[in-house]
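Reminder to self: tokens first, then the designed residues, so the page reads top to bottom the way the pipeline ran.
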């Protein structure tokens, strides 16, 4: 049952309601949504809704239909996130968990951890207690293995996850690791489930070898019923009649789970396929299907691995997979949780540090706001700004730690003002993200398209949705300043027949319905944002650099600079020119290259470029 309390319910009434529910033997949870208290009560079926509705302070009683209670979307309509150390699994991120099947030695674990971190893993995995099919196979290093995991965490900063195989290990887990895994073979070990429920640590619950989704979610319910909501589900393949793969990866479980539960879902393509060459295709498919993360086995010397060598990726293969995921994630509205490592470290480690402040243009629901959330997560504070210059100003004067600014759109081109501001302000680019821009037609409630008469939309949105709008020549189109002002105005007007073009976030924020989705003419509609900060990135590998330069006004001057890139095999991915203020017909060139231009082996090339230009500024490596 979900009990919605009256807004003015007194504390005394609330405690009486709670006491009555406890008396019935219910599991009780409380939520506060938009100032309204909600109590969830899960019992064994003898709760009488009529009796509950009659209690003082109760406004409404809604039964939770179906078997799933605390795991269900009905109980918790929004996606939940599970924090593992500083890393959040769920929401707009794709979190990568990687490492060997088993911890074999400190040297092995540390070597692999450094490699997977370098390529973008957010969490390290490694088994210390290995449930093996044969009693004669390697069973894991046990407590020694846990100590090694704690050392990995200390030396790399990566949170660690390992499998718990018996309730007796609970205290050791608490001592040494950040997340416990309940393996496929133990998915229905109810004593173990209750134990990890009470343990309170984040749990990675794998799907049983031959379990239905319903059985899996009922097992999850055991953990939540003990008061632990931090569960991540892991699809790892199920047993079928097909012998070409170790198991059959049930990718359809992802959308099924997404509908039924609010909990994050990750996919383990390693145990699902059992064969190295099948891991990357399935991992890519899992992200495309909406997985919140991947768990991948990686080994630097798989031929000598003590378990699961044949399915372990070499570190370079893992790196290649991560590059693919980086490209695929924005297509489904997510970002790879790689660029955030340093920030997560800065924000999350010390509990007394204030959350980072980020400046962006517009209002909640704007695409810039979405970019902030996807890049920096939901824990940061977001400061809306009225103009691009105010973003730079806020970062310069220290009001914001970061600024998020759009630089170019795949269809409509560069945002020149921001190029000029990058030159003017002495700030650094510390990251970038590609956001897929999907437009929706939004109305106050479900309205058939032929009943729409007026559409409110920003200029870029109108241009990007031209083909769709041309199908309805009778619609009256009103130009608005931004997508959020269009949706905001729609809410104010509150008249049938009116609609606005905006993002799904904007529709959610204003409580509106999407009546046509994906209405942009070209689905390859991306905006590239950069993240600016006061200090350059230091801790993590940089793969890209942005510079701005001007050349002397003589024939071949630009080609001389380009030659340095070519001779040093530096891939130029963007070149943009902007007029120099006060010097008619002279230009600044903005270049993005796929190299950390300030580090070896490119330092010399950078010195050559400096010699061939009369102005050179590094905008940042990221
Ligand atoms: C593992 O992750 O190492 C493992 C044993 O997985 P599963 O329980 O999915 O077989
Ligand atoms: Mn394994």
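Designed residues (622 positions):
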């Amino acid at each position: 049952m979900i009990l919605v309390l009256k807004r003015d319910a007194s504390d005394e009434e609330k405690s009486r309601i709670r006491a009555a529910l406890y008396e019935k033997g219910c599991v009780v949870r409380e939520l506060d949504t938009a100032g309204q208290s909600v109590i969830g009560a899960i019992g064994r079926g003898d709760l009488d809704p009529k009796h509950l509705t009659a209690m003082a302070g109760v406004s409404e009683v809604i039964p939770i239909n179906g078997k799933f209670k605390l795991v269900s979307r009905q109980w918790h309509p929004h996606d939940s996130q599970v924090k593992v150390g500083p890393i959040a699994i769920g929401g707009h991120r794709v979190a990568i968990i990687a490492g060997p099947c088993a911890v074999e030695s400190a040297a092995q674990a540390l070597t692999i951890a450094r490699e997977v971190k370098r390529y973008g893993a957010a969490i390290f995995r490694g088994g210390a207690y290995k449930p093996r099919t044969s009693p004669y196979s390697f069973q894991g290093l046990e407590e020694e293995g846990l100590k090694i995991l704690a050392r990995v965490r200390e030396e790399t900063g990566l949170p660690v996850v390992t499998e718990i195989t018996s309730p007796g290990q609970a205290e050791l887990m608490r001592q040494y690791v950040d997340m416990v895994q309940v393996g496929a073979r133990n998915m229905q070990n109810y004593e173990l489930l209750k134990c990890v429920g009470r343990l309170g640590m984040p749990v990675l619950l794998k799907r049983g070898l031959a379990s239905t989704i319903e059985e899996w979610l009922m097992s999850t319910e055991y953990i939540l019923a003990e008061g632990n909501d931090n569960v991540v589900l892991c699809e790892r393949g199920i047993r079928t009649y097909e012998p070409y793969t170790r198991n059959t990866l049930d990718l359809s479980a992802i959308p099924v789970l997404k509908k039924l539960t609010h909990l994050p879902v990750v996919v383990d393509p390693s145990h699902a396929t059992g064969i190295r060459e099948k891991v990357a295709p399935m991992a890519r498919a899992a992200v495309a299907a909406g997985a919140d993360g991947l768990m991948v086995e990686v080994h630097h010397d798989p031929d000598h691995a003590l378990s699961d060598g044949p399915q372990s990726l070499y570190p370079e293969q893992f790196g290649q997979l991560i590059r693919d995921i980086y490209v695929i994630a924005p297509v489904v509205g997510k970002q790879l949780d790689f660029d955030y490592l340093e920030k997560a470290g800065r924000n999350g480690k010390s509990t007394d540090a204030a959350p980072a402040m980020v400046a962006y243009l517009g209002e909640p629901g704007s695409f810039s706001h979405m970019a902030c959330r996807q890049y920096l997560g939901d824990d940061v504070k977001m400061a809306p700004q009225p103009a691009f210059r105010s973003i730079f100003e806020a970062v310069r004067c220290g009001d914001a730690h970061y600024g998020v600014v759009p630089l170019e759109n795949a269809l409509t081109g560069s945002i020149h003002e921001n190029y000029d501001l990058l030159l003017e302000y002495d700030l650094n680019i510390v990251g970038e993200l590609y956001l897929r821009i999907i437009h929706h037609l939004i109305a106050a409630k479900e309205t058939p398209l032929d009943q729409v008469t007026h559409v409110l939309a920003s200029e870029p949105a109108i241009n990007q949705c031209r083909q769709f709008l041309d199908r309805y020549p009778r619609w009256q189109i009103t130009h608005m300043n931004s997508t959020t002002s269009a949706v905001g105005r729609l809410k104010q007007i509150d008249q049938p027949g009116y609609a606005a073009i905006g993002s799904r976030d904007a529709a959610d924020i204003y409580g509106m319905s999407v009546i046509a989705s994906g209405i942009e003419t070209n689905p390859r509609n991306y905006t590239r944002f950069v993240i600016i900060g006061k200090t350059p990135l230091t801790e993590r590998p940089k793969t890209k650099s942005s510079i701005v330069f001007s050349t002397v006004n003589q024939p071949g001057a630009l080609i001389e600079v380009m030659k340095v890139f070519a001779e040093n095999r530096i891939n130029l991915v963007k070149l943009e020119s902007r007029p120099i203020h006060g010097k008619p017909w002279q230009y600044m060139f903005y270049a993005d290259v796929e190299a950390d231009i300030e580090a070896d082996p490119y330092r010399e090339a950078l010195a050559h470029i400096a010699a061939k230009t009369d102005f050179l500024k590094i905008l940042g490596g990221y």
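Residues 553 and 586 are 8 Å apart (CA to CA).
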